[in-house]
Design goal:
Chain lengths: ~725, ~230
């Protein structure tokens, strides 16, 4: 007999985030009224965060297979083959809602969660990245959120002992009430030693490992599946508290028992904790699960079955272990809790017992498989007309515009952020933050990974399809610009309320664009996460599908960096420049206009241009390489100059392109490279033979950037502006 | 050189340290668990690496300083054996009484990871013999609590006895408050014990030892130790 206190009322159902028709689905499925604990379990399994009910039908169209793919979406993380018997395990996940309510702990546990996803599969984490989106710098909460989120990301990763090597930080008023924290972790494993969630064998012990269970984070996943209204801050108790120390112990203990061959199945307790992990293990293995909650190590006394099943206490794992004692001794050595809390059964039922009562008895497969799936109505975002460059009157001279752009919140140096992250631990960071992609050596080399996170939300807002394509293309390009072969991506799709057809249209458009680009660039999606309902008081965020890209270098000593290396080298522009100002940073931050369609992405051109750049880098023909993205050509050149202090003397913009559009247009598929002067002719010929446009645009040298007909721009002044804004802002000076 | 790297729960740079010791000295170090009570027989050098032992809870290094293995480390130091503590290792040595003073939170109250410049104050110690006195080296720091503080009497004694091994300086070797990244007293980055056989420092020389990865200025510390023991043997 299942106790039924408190009684189920429509109000209680609504509090659990379940719609009346979803509740009816539950009644139809189990043929009776659910118990309170069961209602909690359904709300945990069927919320947006865990069930992907609004996005599932669209995510199916993403390409998830490829030569390198060992495991695509559906497990804790994606797995790709990098040769030599090694595999890379990676995923990106959001922790947006918690980070707004409690920035330090929200961000910290976001990092903790994604690290756990990676080492659950048997991989030792070797790098972290993140993509952070904050509100308008002038919004009264922004400074507090930046400070807390950055400290939280660092606080967890630094203590855990993984280098945080790259990421993005942006500011826009549309994130005022919903900042985004997307954390990515990358791990390394032996290809034949990957661990999965599916349980096998009847009567096998289910073991609880790690920290104790407390009352923190109850309903965290449900919170992440709803909009914020007023008083969102009152949801603070639903944010978990991170303990990176325990996680580090958990990592070492898990890897140790994996090496010893004790593990049959393993699942971390993330969103919806014990519920989600136990159901997943059973359902994936076609088995039932009996849980004895009296055995669960608790931090607090008097916890109910409902609370234990929904707690999101951190640093916990569930495993099916071979019955030998070895694993227990290893966990005891690391000072971690170890308890047998249940066993697998042939019944395909999910049975939860507590204090002598059966608190839940549910069909285990249906809990996951029968979750509602919605093909929600959507409206395609109307296409915007292309903005003619000639219709944009430059409000200032080119050098003034460059100096302004380089010190804006979006383009300025993020050193203040990444210096709070340990980016050198493990001794393998070949390229630190600040370049196109981070380069991390694999063990003792010579292989290395190129890692990046990219998306341009203002493009996605103006045209979700082109924006989705662009996010993938830019990740591909950033890996290419350091000399890496792009292999696969993880996607973290952040949108507003999917029940609004306009928002759903953004999701559908972006996913279409991502799918298109992934197919064209052989860049499959192997893992990901969807975060919806990023809305406060009815206003949604900019559509932000963050793309985390992983690429491979066969020899890390051949990676290219963006800094100009010496004076007297020839600067080449690869790719075609029309001068596309629509949705550019020049248009927004210099002219004060957010208009037009974003630059179109020609994926064939992308591929051709990138392939030749990668080949040139691999052959050691270029001394520096940089992709052109936000801010356009002149910003790219300025970044290359600032990185070393070596300046540039540039040639005039071509006659047929307005100057401001040539220097600041954001046309895609472009790179700037430098080559020694005596090789310039040969390299240009090589590029032309590949049918890729290439132009000589100047030479390196001096301490300024010189453009014909304009005043010289001192690099020192650019550096001051570039490095100045963020520290000044955070100290309250601007 | 027979070295032993002590591992406390939460230490996370033990692999970096072991790899560097192997790379520079040629000999694999032994890894010693915090709950052990003895060092491997014949240990020449004890290294306490960086990390967050016991999560830095209570106070950095305070819990590790009381771990079973520390009696053996103290005895080793008491016999004149060499002990090196880096970052959290430095904090642990201070907490265990092997070095004076304490590491407070960085003056800016933020964790900081970046390359810094250190002036090697003397070259007549087993730790610094591969450097020249006054030489400036570039190595990374990665800490939230590296601001060295001691009472004025202790600082006077450290300075008077020449026990400051490394100082944060500008790239040209001059003292400059802008380059004293954590606000340490007298820009102190590393100190020696009274007998000169225990060194604690905040920066991570073990992360700057390979040309392929970046600068190699950290190598000298391990090369010096290797030479020292080659001679002793």
């Amino acid at each position: 007999m299942i106790p039924n206190e408190p009684p189920i009322t429509p109000a209680l159902v609504a509090e659990h985030g379940l719609k009346p028709e979803e509740y009816q689905r539950i009644l139809d499925l189990i043929g009776r009224e659910p118990s309170f604990t069961e209602l909690g379990i359904f709300s945990a399994m069927w919320n947006e965060h865990c069930s992907y009910k609004s996005s599932k039908v669209h995510l199916r169209n993403l390409p998830t297979k490829g030569a390198c793919v060992i495991q695509g979406p559906g497990e804790n993380a994606g797995v790709i083959d990098i040769g030599d018997g090694l595999a890379v395990v990676f995923k990106m996940e959001s922790h947006n809602h918690p980070s707004y309510i409690e920035p330090y702990q929200g961000a910290a546990t976001g990092v903790g969660g994604i690290l756990r996803d990676v080492f659950t599969m048997g991989a030792r984490p070797i790098a972290c990245l993140n993509a952070l989106s904050f509100g308008d710098p002038d919004h009264p909460k922004t400074r507090h959120l930046v400070s807390g989120v950055v400290a939280g990301v660092g606080g967890y990763g630094n203590s855990f002992g993984v280098p945080t090597v790259g990421g993005q930080v942006r500011f826009h008023t549309r994130y005022d009430g919903n900042n985004l924290v997307n954390a990515m972790a990358v791990g390394l494993a032996k290809k034949d030693k990957i661990f999965y969630a599916a349980a096998s064998g009847v009567g096998m012990p289910i073991v609880y490992l790690g920290s104790k269970t407390g009352r923190d984070g109850i309903h965290g996943a449900s919170m992440a599946s709803a909009e914020f209204g007023e008083g969102a801050e009152e949801k603070r108790p639903t944010v978990q508290v991170g303990d990176p120390f325990s996680e580090k112990l958990l990592l070492e203990a898990c890897l140790e028992i994996m090496v010893k061959g004790c593990v049959i199945a393993i699942q971390d307790m993330g969103a919806a904790g014990l519920t989600c992990s136990a159901v997943e293990m059973g359902a994936k293995g076609n088995l039932g699960v009996d849980l004895e909650l009296d055995k669960v190590p608790c931090r607090e006394t008097g916890m109910s079955a409902y609370e234990m099943m929904l707690s999101e206490s951190q640093e916990r794992m569930l495993m099916v272990l071979k019955p030998e004692k070895e694993a227990e001794a290893i966990f005891k050595k690391w000072g971690l809790d170890f308890a047998i809390v249940g066993h697998t059964t042939p019944s395909k039922r999910f049975i939860v017992k507590h204090a002598g009562d059966v608190m839940a008895d549910l069909p285990i497969k249906e809990l996951g498989d029968e979750a509602p799936v919605y093909d929600r109505p959507y409206i395609d975002t109307p296409k915007k007309p292309a903005l003619k460059a000639t219709s944009v009157t430059p409000p200032m001279r080119v050098p003034d515009a460059l100096e302004r752009l380089i010190g804006t919140p979006d383009l300025c140096s993020k050193r203040w952020v990444w210096e709070q992250y340990d980016h050198v631990i493990l001794g393998n960071t070949v390229q630190r933050p600040g370049g196109d992609a981070a380069v991390v050596r694999v063990e003792d080399g010579p292989k290395a990974l190129a890692l990046t996170v990219d998306v341009t939300p203002r493009y996605c807002e103006a045209d979700p399809y082109e924006g989705g394509k662009q996010a993938v293309a830019e990740a591909w390009r950033n890996i290419t610009a350091v000399g890496g072969q792009p292999l696969a991506i993880t996607d973290n799709l952040n949108f507003g309320n999917p029940e609004k057809p306009e928002i759903m249209g953004q999701l559908v458009g972006c996913v279409r664009g991502i799918a298109e680009a992934c197919k064209a660039l052989d860049f499959p999606v192997v893992s990901g996460n969807v975060s919806l309902y990023n809305e406060t008081q009815g206003r949604g965020i900019l559509p932000t599908p963050s793309i985390g890209g992983v690429g491979l270098l066969n020899d890390f000593t051949k990676s290219a960096t963006l800094a100009f290396k010496a004076a007297g080298e020839t600067i080449l522009l690869i790719g075609e420049t029309q001068g596309w100002l629509g949705q550019s940073l020049y248009l927004r931050d210099v002219c004060g206009r957010e208009e037009g369609s974003p630059p179109p992405v020609d994926l064939i051109e992308e591929r051709e241009n990138g392939d030749i750049v990668r080949a040139l880098i691999g052959e050691g023909l270029v001394s520096a390489a940089h992709d052109i993205s936000d801010g356009g050509l002149l910003v790219a050149v300025a970044e290359m100059a600032m990185a070393s202090g070596v300046g540039a003397v540039l040639e005039a913009a071509p006659e047929d392109t307005p100057r401001h559009a040539f220097w600041f247009g954001e046309d895609q598929a472009r790179y700037v490279v430098t080559v020694s002067a005596d090789r310039a002719e040969a390299v240009m010929q090589r590029v032309q033979e590949a049918s890729v446009p290439v132009y000589r645009i100047g030479a390196t040298g001096g301490e300024t950037i010189v453009i014909p007909g304009e005043r010289a721009i001192a690099i020192k002044a650019l550096v001051d502006r570039f490095e100045g804004w963020l520290p000044a802002y955070m100290s309250g000076a601007v | 050189m027979k070295s032993a790297v002590v591992v406390f729960p939460g230490i996370n740079r033990e692999r970096d340290m072991a790899r560097t010791l192997k790379l520079v000295s040629g000999a694999e170090p032994s890894m010693v668990w915090h709950a052990d009570t003895e060092l491997p027989p014949g240990t020449d050098l004890v290294v306490i690496p960086g990390g967050f032992s016991y999560g830095d809870y209570l106070r950095c290094g305070a819990i590790a300083a009381r771990a079973p293995i520390m009696d053996a480390v103290r005895a080793h130091a008491g016999r004149g054996g060499l002990v090196l503590g880096v970052c959290n290792g430095f904090q642990i040595l201070c907490e265990s009484g092997l070095l004076p003073g304490v590491l407070m939170r960085n003056a800016a109250l933020r964790f900081i990871c970046k390359d810094v410049y250190l002036r090697v104050e003397r070259s007549d110690t087993p730790f610094t013999r591969d450097y020249n006195a006054g030489q400036v080296i570039r190595v990374p720091v990665a800490h939230g609590e590296g601001n060295y503080v001691a009472d004025s009497e202790t600082v006077t004694r450290l300075e008077g006895d020449g026990r400051v091994a490394f100082r944060y300086v500008a790239p040209d070797g001059k003292l400059d408050p802008r380059w004293n990244i954590n606000g340490a007293t007298n820009a102190i980055a590393g100190i020696l014990s009274e007998r000169g056989n225990v060194l604690g420092l905040m920066p991570h020389p073990e992360n700057h030892v390979e040309t392929a990865i970046g600068p190699t200025d950290g190598r000298g510390l391990f090369a010096g130790l290797t030479q020292h023991f080659a001679k002793v043997a």
